[in-house]
Write a structure and sequence with these properties.
Blueprint (H helix, E strand, L loop, with lengths): L1 E6 L4 H12 L3 E4 L9 E7 L14 E4 L5 H4 L10 E2 L4 H19 L2 H9 L15 E5 L3 H12 L3 E6 L10 E4 L4 H5 L4 E4 L13 H4 L6 E5 L8 H10 L2 E6 L19 E3 L9 H16 L15
Parallel strand pairs: 1-2, 1-3, 3-4, 4-5, 6-7, 6-9, 7-8, 9-10, 10-11, 11-12
This protein binds glyoxylic acid.
């Protein structure tokens, strides 16, 4: 079996070691050093050069090194007949849960106010707020969104979810779906967490009209994709005081351009797309499991569905 490893801006050494440990004697070809394109069975990719994936005539599957596959399907030349497998890695998901929890506490427990108070040398204890009084909305209840919702529920936060389509198995939270239920979903949320993938349905979904449905004084955390939140509208609503703060890990353009006003906005907290970074060991384990499933004729998980766009 031969596997192409095409990972942009990544130290390949730990990946090669982890994949060798997981898969044993496979032929790992590190892009661009592939002598014979016809031997490649699988491609493990992160931001591959557009056009390259069509050059492997016997490719059986493309495995994303990220939960999102927009870096693959945005390539106009990716081979449409080859299945794409997203990455569900428990460690990556746990890291996103921790990231989210950090900002939930930052906003819910008023920690964001203590920085200012410290500069004024002001010893001002804000009253304790019960987590169950804080209503958190998670948009995108795929495996990662579900892990985030479960984590917050375990700390007694009140959690509701919204997804583009109806979903079974949502017994622990109130679940809303589709365009018609977005109003009801957003209308009572204190902290909105976006974990949605970027699709034609979700692009620009959180713009002025939808953000205004949130109650005055609410917060937003974006770890899905930047293109889902309209940055200009977000700034406008923060300036008006309708929204109180935003923690953003993803942006319409990455790296975030130096002249983007989000950088210096007093109510915006920026991290450079670091929520859910890859850990080669656990990611290689998840990828190898899917390669074994594919070799045994089983369905890999999670398999990209082109109709849904994720
Ligand atoms: C990161 O953004 C990912 O898609 O996993």
């Amino acid at each position: 079996m031969a596997i192409l490893l095409s990972l942009k801006d990544t130290d390949l050494v730990p990946w090669v070691e982890a994949l060798n440990n997981e898969l044993g004697s496979v032929d790992l070809c590190l892009y661009p050093k592939v002598e014979d394109n016809s031997i490649i069975d699988y491609a493990i990719v992160w931001k591959h050069p557009y056009g390259d994936l069509k050059n492997y005539p016997n490719l059986k599957a493309i495995l994303s090194c990220g939960a999102g596959v927009d870096h693959i399907v945005d390539d106009p030349d990716y081979p449409r007949s080859v299945p794409i497998v997203r990455l569900y890695d428990e460690k990556l998901s746990q890291d996103m849960c921790l990231y989210t929890l950090h900002w939930v506490l930052h906003f819910h427990s008023d920690y964001y106010q203590y920085n200012n108070l410290q500069t004024q040398k002001n010893w001002n204890q804000k009253p304790f707020k019960l987590p169950e009084k804080c209503h958190i909305g998670v948009m995108g209840l795929g495996v990662i969104g579900k892990d985030i919702a479960d984590t917050l529920i375990s700390f007694d936060f009140k959690v509701s979810g919204w997804g583009a389509t109806k979903k079974p198995d949502m017994e622990l939270l109130t679940y809303y779906y589709g365009e018609t239920q977005i109003h009801d979903f957003l209308s009572s949320i204190d902290i909105l967490i976006n974990v949605l993938p970027l699709t034609t349905t979700t692009s620009n979904l959180l713009s002025e009209n939808t953000l205004r449905l949130l109650p005055k004084g609410s917060f937003i955390i974006n770890i899905g994709r930047g293109g889902i939140v309209n940055e200009a509208d977000l700034i406008m609503l923060l300036d008006e005081g309708h929204l109180m703060g935003a923690a953003l890990d993803v942006f319409a353009t990455e790296p975030l351009p130096k002249n983007n006003p989000l950088w210096s906005h007093p109510k915006v907290y920026i991290t450079p797309h670091i929520a859910g970074q890859n850990n080669p060991q656990s990611a290689a384990m998840a990828i190898a499991k899917n390669i074994r499933r594919l070799e045994n004729g089983e369905e890999p998980f999670p398999l990209y569905n082109p109709e849904k766009g994720y």
